[in-house]
Amino acid sequence: MKKIGFLLALLTCQLSYGQENEENRNLVFDSVDLKIIKRADAILSDSLKWNKQDDRECADDIATGNYSLYCALYKASIEIAGEYVHRRAAMQIVRFTLEKYDNGRVKNHRLMDWNNHPETTFKEVKKVLKESIDAVIKKLKEANKKF
């Protein structure tokens, strides 16, 4: 019985640690994060390039040149960093920023649900990207002052 209790406790700790890791709000940025968000903003240069029907499968977005918010960040990550990292600081700051404009639009996947919601506008997408860029710049400046 003690073994079962220990295993349950260990499993609970691992699950808690994993969730906490995923949602770490103390993000550390580098210049690559800033470049990724700026590139995603450039990819979504006008409303005609915005895909309002995100399915988190980006091959079709890349093929058509119409990008959801998620796929613009995905493509920018590949172009700038050479890889896509789901919980990279650049991705997380956009997720955290759009939470201010959630208003019940998000159920499971923040970027997809918010992008696809009927009330989400292209103007809001651009606003979230701009605020994310500004937040990263602020954090990078603060980090440089420490040295």
Question: Layout of SSEs?
Answer:
Elements: H1 2-22, H2 31-43, H3 59-64, H4 69-81, H5 89-98, H6 110-116, H7 122-145
Helix pairs in contact: 2-4, 2-5, 2-7, 5-7
Quick rundown:
64% of the residues lie in helices and 0% in strands. With 147 residues, it is mainly alpha-helical. The chain has one domain (25-145).
What does this structure look like?
It is a single chain. Helix 5 packs across helix 7. With 147 residues, the protein is an all-alpha fold. The chain contains seven helices and no strands.
Number of domains: 1
Q: Count of DSSP E strands?
A: 0
The shape, in one word, is globular
Summarize model confidence as the mean pLDDT: 87
Instruction: Provide the structure class.
Output: mainly alpha
Q: What value does the Rg take, in angstroms?
A: 18 Å
What is the H-and-E element order?
HHHHHHH
So how many helices? 7
Instruction: List low-pLDDT spans.
Output: 5-21
Percent helix:
55-70%
Distance between the termini: 53 Å
Major sheet characteristics: none
Q: Which percent range describes the beta-strand content?
A: under 5%
